[in-house]
Structures are given as structure tokens and as C-alpha cells.
Design brief:
This protein is about 40% helix and about 15% strand. By secondary structure, it is an alpha/beta fold. Helix 3 links the parallel strand 2 and strand 3 (about 80-85).
Length: about 325
């Protein structure tokens, strides 16, 4: 970061995506939202489209996504909402998506993800599934779209999580070949990687007019919890976290920080930072049992970011 001043806005944890973009005109802008047909992805796409952007939902299942796109066209009055197939653990799918893209891209929201897969699962290429999906797939997509991003002077939005506080990137054992598999630890590693992607993209592509930031959307109950018990987990979590004073968000509120980074003029020129509740998060150097919020110093470390970028390039080229 350029200085030690944290960026604050007039928005907070209760703000919705529509409120954040209420006075923003995105006509002429083109956006891609991965995982744009579920959870906060829908509300991210809705707010961008309502502001006038052309929005592409990049999704695994195009059938259900077409229904979402139809609803978004009706609710926003914007017909320029498209659906395109994208499987983040399939290099051929990523290549096909990038090669099919024509013209500039102004907003890339790397939103799709999986959380806390119970059993150790690896991609066809051998990466632990959460690292492969949440980070490496988005890394491959982002780098493949670089010419379009540079043409658009784009903003890259990397949806991370407070789960990144559970683990740094363990470079010597990314895929749990030696250490015992921990579903939430693996999720944490992948979410740290999401932040580091933004940190190095901010540095590497600054001369292209590209900015990149990461965020924690907040606690939102969506399909993301499907691997940890779904509705049963959600009901238990409501009780457990209520006792700790944690307030959960609606999907509309959860998408607010994403669209702030994607399109708000308040973020013009801001890059390489991490936000939560529509404001820049404080760096923390030690996690304690009472830690709520903040961004781990290791997730903002430029050397970690550069190392992960180089490692990721090797992995997607192998």
C-alpha cells in the first residue's frame, strides 16, 4: 500500500449493493462476474446491470444461469446480461472463455468459490480442490484476460474471506501431500491466495491502468455452505454466532463491498488493498480467539504475492 492511511467511505456493513451504486452510471462498461448465478454473485451482477453495465455471468451450469439472467433483465431493465460457460478447474474451459471474449473488459469480479470440502479432493491436474478452484482457476482466467483488462483500464475484484486468517499460503505443501488435510485450513489458504493475487496484479499491471483489490463480503448464508452441512449448518451457525454478537448480512448487503471495488468512484486509483464492510480493513499480525475482521499481514506481503504469482504461472503452464 502506498501509505498507512486506511480508506473509509460513507457505507458500512448495512449498506446494500444497490445503495453503493445508486448514483453510478456504468453505461458503456463491460463486466464479468464468475459464479454470477448464485449467492452474492447474483446481487453483484444485479447492481452492475442496474447501473447500466453489460454483464456476463461466467458459470459452471448455464441452464439455471439463463433463468437467473432472464430475471435480472426483467428486474434491471437491462437486456445486456449474458451467460457463458466457465469451469475453473478445467484449463480448456478457461482458455475457451478468454478466447471467446472480444473487446475491452472493464470489470472482472472473481467471485465463484467452494468452501471447506470435507474430504481431500484434487483437480485433474493434481491441485487441492479449493486452491485449484478459488485461486488457480481465477488466476488462469485473470492472466488470460489481461489484454482485455488492459484495453479497458479495468478493475479486478478478488472475493476473499475472513477465512484467510486461518492459513497463509503454505508454499512447500500447497496440495496436502505431507500435512494432514484440514477443510477450513485449505479454504483459508485459498482465500489468502485471493488477496495475494490482487496485491501482485496491482503492482504488475499498474502501467496498464488496471487496479486490483480484494475483499471480505461478510457473513452471508448461501450455497457456499453446502459442503459443511447446508441448512443444518446455517441454523446452528445462527445460534452460535448470535451468542458472539456477530451480525449476518443479506446477499444484497454481502455484494455491497464487491460492487464498491468494482465500480464506485470512491475507489478510483485505489489498488492492492483489502476491504470489509465497504471500508479498508486494518492489518493484523496475530490472530487471537477474539479476532473479528482485519486482514493478515501475510496476505498483503508483496514478496508472498510475487512468489505466489510465479508459482501459479508454473502450475498453469505445467
Amino acid at each position: 500500500m502506498a501509505d498507512n492511511t486506511l480508506l473509509t467511505t460513507c457505507f458500512d456493513s448495512t449498506s446494500t449493493a444497490a445503495e453503493v451504486l445508486a448514483d453510478v452510471d456504468l453505461r458503456g462498461s463491460r463486466a464479468v462476474v464468475t459464479g454470477g448465478a448464485s449467492g452474492i454473485g447474483i446481487e453483484t451482477a444485479r447492481a452492475l446491470a442496474a447501473a447500466g453495465a453489460e454483464v456476463t455471468l461466467a458459470v459452471r451450469r448455464t441452464g439455471p444461469a439463463e433463468d437467473v439472467a432472464a430475471e435480472l433483465r426483467t428486474s434491471t431493465g437491462n437486456e445486456a446480461i449474458h451467460v457463458a460457460p466457465l469451469e475453473l478447474v478445467d484449463p480448456a474451459s478457461i482458455t475457451a472463455f478468454a478466447e471467446a471474449w472480444s473487446g475491452p473488459l472493464h470489470i472482472l469480479v472473481n467471485n465463484a468459490g467452494v468452501m471447506a470440502i470435507g474430504d481431500l479432493t484434487r483437480t485433474a491436474a493434481g491441485q487441492e480442490m479449493q486452491f485449484g478452484t478459488n485461486h488457480l482457476g481465477h488466476f488462469a482466467l485473470t492472466t488470460a484476460l489481461h489484454p482485455a483488462l488492459a484495453a479497458g483500464g479495468a478493475r479486478i475484484v478478488s472475493v476473499s474471506s475472513s477465512g484467510h486468517l486461518r492459513s497463509p499460503v503454505i508454499f512447500d505443501d500447497l496440495d496436502y501431500r505431507f500435512r494432514d488435510y484440514d477443510p477450513f485450513g485449505a479454504y483459508g489458504q485459498s482465500k489468502t491466495a485471493n488477496v495475494l493475487l490482487a496485491v501482485h496484479a496491482a503492482s504488475l499491471w499498474a502501467e496498464d491502468g488496471i487496479t486490483a483489490n480484494a475483499l471480505m463480503p461478510g457473513g452471508i448464508f448461501t450455497e457456499l455452505q453446502r459442503h459443511v452441512g447446508g441448512s443444518d449448518y446455517i441454523e446452528q451457525a445462527k445460534v452460535r454466532f448470535a451468542d458472539a454478537g456477530v451480525r449476518f448480512k443479506t446477499p444484497e448487503q454481502g455484494a455491497a463491498t464487491s460492487v464498491l471495488l468494482a465500480a464506485s468512484p470512491l475507489l478510483d486509483g485505489v489498488t492492492g488493498r483489502y476491504f470489509e464492510d465497504c471500508n479498508e480493513a486494518r492489518p493484523i499480525h496475530e490472530r487471537t480467539p477474539t479476532t473479528l475482521g482485519g486482514v493478515a499481514a501475510y496476505a498483503l506481503d508483496p514478496e508472498n504475492a510475487e512468489r505466489l504469482w510465479a508459482t501459479s504461472l508454473e502450475l498453469i503452464r505445467s
